[in-house]
Design a protein that fits this description.
The protein is mostly helical. It is 43% helix and 9% strand.
Amino acid sequence: MRRRKRNVRVSSKNAMMCSAYAGNLAWAHLVASQALRKDPALGGEVYIITDDTPVMSRRDLVGILAASGGTESVPDGSISIPPWVLYAVLALIMLVSYAISPVYNLT
């Protein structure tokens, strides 16, 4: 019996994203460029460019894209690590490397 390799994913389960079709984004930039030529006062403003693509989690989006290619993106049994755990581990590594730097040069 073969053991399955576990995938580790660092992300928040609650993180949602809004993706958009690249052609719509390019068209929005062209329209914005034309509007800026007519009224330069529009410059410096913040605009959100989106289309009717549904808001979903990154995991769901990757799953849809992977399924369209015939593969499984995140198999069942994958491990999800919250981002704060990764930040805590990295902070600990930085602290230890700073503490031993007078004795041992890591570079």
